[in-house]
Structures are given as structure tokens and as C-alpha cells.
Amino acid sequence: MLMMVDYVHVRLQTYDDLKIGVDFTMGNGHDTLFLSHICQYVYSFDIQQVALDHTKQILDQNNVQLILDGHENFDHYISSFDVGIFNLGYLPNMNHDITTKLETTKIVISKALDCMNKVLFVVVYPGHDEGYKESLWIDYYMSKLDTNHYNVSQYCMLNKKHSPYVIEIEKKQI
User: Fold this and answer.
1) Closest-CA residue to 65 (of 87, 43, 81)
2) At how many degrees (to 10) do helices 30-38 and 49-58 cross?
3) Contact 47, 69 (CB under 8 A)
4) How does the average pLDDT of the chain come out, rounded?
């Protein structure tokens, strides 16, 4: 069975003609690297310099802009994108007190849905306090999206309580 991030990468390959990709939570740069191979250009955001430093080391493409800023400010840099990825939570093996916050997650996801052209993936980590709060809001918010405009699916491990899961939001082409 695929891990959550691997599942997202497999699903991403089903979309074509991806011009602009956004990694809203750069972290260690794995999603940024993957997007750089399937998109013409990628914008990648994080609030921690260590994330940018690590990502620079693994990039093998020059079609990426690494941005030291909160993901809620992405619309200061771009007005639309084809594909976006969120890996909510904290940077693995780093300070777990520095995590995505429900307050900014609400802002950025709402804005991202307005700006996306094709698909948005949100990997949710409900196993820590802030992640649990985010998961409650995300599940409710996504379940209320207009079915005339979006298809929303979830990939999860049903037998593992509080395990990470993926929400995929596809914009319908009307």
C-alpha cells in the first residue's frame, strides 16, 4: 500500500499539461522536487530557512522559485496555478512546535481553491494537537464544497486511528 505522499505523486501523474505547480509546505523539498519534473514552473513556500536550504540541495531542475514566506501569502507571488500540494504539520526531525496552524490553513486553502485550475492535494496529519484541529476543519470544509465546481476524494488508512490522510480536490472544467 502506498504511503500518503507516494499516493499524491501517483495521482499527480494522471494530470497533464501542468504549467504552474505550488508546494505550499516545502519541508524537506520532496514534493517540490517531484513537481519540478512534471510542471513547467514551481513555486515553493516555507517559513523556515532550513527548509529552503535542504530543498536547494536536492533540486536537480532550475524551474523552481523557493520562497521564504508563509503559504497564506502565495497570492502575492502568483494569481493562479494548475496543481498544488500541502503537507500539513511540522518539518520532520525538526522543532515540532513550528507547525502549520489552523488559522493560516483556513486562509490559504480558501484562497488556493479560488486560484487553482486543476487540482489541489492536502495531506493532513491529525496525530498532533494542531493537526487534529486542522483535520476537523478541513473535513467539514471540504465536505461542503459545491459539487457543481469540485470533486473531492479522500485516501486514508481506515484501521489506523489519527493516521495521515489525503484530500484531493479537483476543479471541474465547466
Assistant:
1) 43
2) 50
3) yes
4) 94
- Residue linked to cell 505522499: 5
> 3-state secondary structure string, 51-90?
HHHHHHHHCCCCCEEEEECCHHHHHHCCCCEEEEEEECCE
Residue from 110, 161, 171, 116 nearest 138 by CA: 110
Average pLDDT over residues 107-112: 97
Q: Which residues contact 130 (CB under 8 A, 6 or more apart)?
A: 89, 99, 100, 101, 102
State pLDDT tens for residues 133-158. Answer: 999 999 999 999 999 999 999 999 98
DSSP string, 101-119: -HHHHHHHHHHHHHHEEEE
CB count, 10 Å around CB of 1?
5
Residue with the bigger pLDDT between 89 and 10: it is 10
Provide the pLDDT confidence category of residue 94 given band limits of 50, 70 and 90: low
Query: Looking at per-residue confidence, does 32 or 96 come out higher?
Result: 32
Residue 172 in this model has a pLDDT that exceeds 90: yes
Residue 153 contacts residue 143 (beta carbons within 8 Å): no
Side-chain-side CA neighbours of 96 within 13 Å: the count stands at: 7
Q: What is the helix (H) or strand (E) element at residue 121, kind and residue range?
A: strand 116-124
Residue 140, all three cell numbers: 467539514
